[in-house]
Amino acid sequence: MNKHIQECRRVCQAAGLSVLEIKHGKKHLKIVCSQGTITCGCTPSDWRWFRNLRSIARRMAENDIN
After folding, report:
1. C-alpha angle with apex 14: 8 to 16, nearest 5 degrees?
2. 35 vs 45: CA distance, rounded Å
3. Domain span holding position 48
4. I want to staple 15 with a disulfide (CB 3.0 to 4.6 A). Which of 5, 25, 52, 57 is the partner?
C-alpha cells in the first residue's frame, strides 16, 4: 500500500497541488491538499483509480488558478 500512497502524492504534486496529509481508511484514501480534499479508492479491484485521481487533481488545480 505504501507504493499506492507514493503514487497518489506524485500525481497530485504533478498537477500542481500541495499535499498536506494522506489519510488511509478501509477502502479509500483521503488526500488533503491546501486546495481541498480528494477521495481516492484503494482496493485491488479498482483499476480506474489512477485515471480518476489524475483527472480530479488536474481539475482541482485548474479551479484553484482561475
Report:
1. 110
2. 29
3. 2-65
4. 57
Task: Enumerate residues 6+ apart whose C-beta is below 8 A from 21.
Answer: 31, 32
Q: What domain count does the chain have?
A: 1
Q: Which residue has the cell 488536474?
A: 58
Higher pLDDT, 1 or 3: 3
Residue with grid cell 489519510, as numbered in its chain:
23
Residue 44 has what pLDDT? Answer: 77
Q: Is 62 exposed, middle or buried (0-12, 13-18, 19+ CB in 10 A)?
A: exposed
Give the Cα separation of 8 and 58 in Å (integer).
13
Q: What is the pLDDT of residues 14-50, one digit of tens each?
A: 999 999 999 988 889 999 999 999 999 888 788 899 9
